[in-house]
Structures are given as structure tokens and as C-alpha cells.
Amino acid sequence: MKRIKASIIGFGSVGQGVARVLLRKKEELSSMGLDIAVVAVADSKTAVIDQQGVDLAMVLERKASEGIVGDEHITGHDIIRDIEHDLVIETTPTNIDTGGVGLQNMLTAFNKKRHVVTSNKGPLALKYRELAALAERSGCAFRFEATVGGAMPLINLIKDTLAGNDVISIEGIFNGTCNYILTRMMEEHATYELMLAEAQELGIAEKDPIYDVEGIDAACKLVILANAIFGMDATYKDVHVTGISRITPEALMLAETDGYVIKLIGEVSKNRIQVAPRLVPIGHPLAVGGTLNVASLQTDLAGPVIVVGRGAGSIETASAILSDIVSIYKD
Asked: Is 0.85 surpassed by the pTM of this model?
């Protein structure tokens, strides 16, 4: 049995999802020969540390009841730097302007020769090449499946299952919030503002939805794909971005009359990176509804490959993180 000491840095929705998934899948992981002991958990205010392994159920309960994880007033960065462990699960919030604390957390982890699995798009959208190079020099794994499609397997599909194929282009829907709003606008013949409010009430859209509805979230995901799959050195500034806030019910109805739906489509290839609303034929593989994400890969050997899945959600994103963890130690 291989004992893996891990930290969870960031204990919002995704970090808590990781804790729940590790509890739920303890027996399955054990059957693979993996004993994952979380020795430290940090949120934005507090931390809990136990080299024997923290009680994740108690940490989740305390977070729910008190809004904190523990009594230690040290940062996630301090934990990464000073607490001996093997793996950093980095789930702090995305900041595409500076990379936020996540960028420093990842740099420190690699300098301390700790593997990193993350759901945090910001650092990768800004400094992918620097992070990947440092990870390689340090002999560390750097996995980030959860940054692009949530539970939708994409990066690992390309690098593992489709290994040997040249990927010519990737296009699809990479933001479930936008997809939900556009789907509901068409179903109800309702305004953008009304369906945004519904999405916020259901918890599908954030109180400040600008990252989602203006295409910023999707653009960051395309940058990650451009760098990780196409070997580019792109940043968010290289993406041509148009959001959905100006789409009207009239435009959607006119499209429907002609046999189309309007979707926010991201496209990446060696020649272009773009996010914009596009007409998609009704019944086309990219015309999925609700909060689903979808990606269409054009490859030289396998031809077109379509992947559909939930692009967000606490447990769904945690499933991608768990997949990355297993792939590191299985290898």
C-alpha cells in the first residue's frame, strides 16, 4: 500500500467536493493500493494540520457550521512551504489578472518538489509555460484536467487515449452557465436579464457573472488547451472574446425558425483562439442544452471525437481531480 500525504489548499465548493470524494472512494482507492492521507487543509482564514491525517468528515462539518476549517492561522502557502507532504491539491479561486494566491502556491509546490493537481484556471491562463517548465525541472507531476471541462474528460483523453493522434482543432461549449441561460432564453422566449436572474437563483450563475457571461471563463479554458495540447505560449490576451449579454430573444427565435440554436462556442487550433456566439444547427452534436459542456475534437487518425459532460459542480470537478491523482500514482 502506497501512503500519499496530501494537502487541500482552498476549501470552497471544489475543495469540499474533493474531501467528500476522498471519503466516498476510500475503499476503491485502497483496492488500487493507494492510501491518500490529507495531512493539511486550508481555507482563506484558517487551517488544520495532522501528520497522521486530518478527519475530513469533521473538517467538512466545521466548515458548514462555523465557516472555518480549523484553529491554525497560517496560510495555504505556509503549508506548502513548511509541512512535509507529497501532493498539493490546489483549489483556490481563479484570478486571471494576477494568477492570485494559486500561482504562488504552485510555484512554491514545485520548488519544494511536490506534485500539483489543480482546478484553478488563472495561473495556467497566465503562466502555463513557466509552471510546466518548473514542474519538469523539479521532477513533479502537474495535472489540471479539472480546469477545462469539469467532469468532461478532455486533456487526459487527448494525451492518453488518443496518444499518437494529431489534434487539428477543438471546438465546443466550455461554460455551462452561458449554455443554461441561452437554452432557457430559447425555451421561454425570455430576455437575457430574466434568465440570468433565474440562473443566479438556482446557483448556476455567480452573483457577479461577468467571468461566465462575457466569455472570460471559456477563454481561459481555451488558453489552457492551446498551451497544453497545441504547444503554444498563449495567454488570455490572445483570445478574441465575445460574450452572450447582447443576445436577444428575437435573435434566438429567428435562428430557431431557420433550424438553428445560438451557442457560445470556443474554438482553438494552431491558427486561432476564439470565443463567440455562433449559429449551430438543431440536432448538431454541439447543440447540447442546459448546463452541459461539449467538445468536438478533429484528429488526423481517429477523425472527429465528441465528448459531452458536466462542466461544473463540486463533485463533478472533484471527480476530475481524483482522476488526475490516480493517474499520477498509478503511473
From this structure: yes
